[in-house]
Amino acid sequence: MSSTVENIIQGSVKERIDRWVARYPDDQKQSAVMAALRIVQETNGGHLTTELMDQIADYLEMPPIAVYEVATFYGNYEHEPVGKHKICLCNSISCMLRGNDEILAHMEKKLNIKPGEVTEDGRFSIKKVECLGACGGAPMMQIGKTYYENLTEASVDEILDGLE
Q1: Where would a tag sit more exposed on the chain, N or C end, judged by fewer CB atoms within 10 A?
Q2: What confidence tens digit (pLDDT) does each residue in 67-95 have?
Q3: Which residues are annotated as a binding site for [2Fe-2S] cluster?
């Protein structure tokens, strides 16, 4: 770990990770890696860096490559900065059949960004995700921890305009 990188695993971050570590046998603390990645990502404004993943590996006493493998396999970990409101647009077959392409095109035009980009003011980013598990409400998106279902262009405008 680089000595120029501030250790993020301290104080309340360390306490939160330790609560997850306590759920597993003493010799299995690496089982808390997904929770640790989520906690560190939240603390770092929504994305991970190699240095932060190295700190997690060091703290959980596991090879850095094992942390990178988890962080790059799952789509809920970000490796580039995201907007204050990360819009996760579901790309499942149900959403595709019910118009997510039109919803995406509308969001791209409204926000002037493509998936993977952040608006100039840093408020929004768009990410296409494989499935959010809400096929009955397709097309749908997730912003923060909230699911928005049965989207229309009008409802997208109302939702986005209502966010600070």
Answers
A1: C
A2: 999 999 988 899 999 999 999 999 999 99
A3: 90, 95, 131, 135
pLDDT tens string 9-23: 999 999 999 999 999
Binding-site annotation, residues: 90, 95, 131, 135
pTM of the model: 0.79
Which domains are present in the chain? 11-73 (1.10.10), 85-162 (3.40.30.10)
Who contacts 138 (Cβ-Cβ below 8 Å, separation ≥6)? 90, 92, 94, 95, 97, 98, 100, 149, 150
* Distance of alpha carbon 4 from alpha carbon 108, whole angstroms: 38
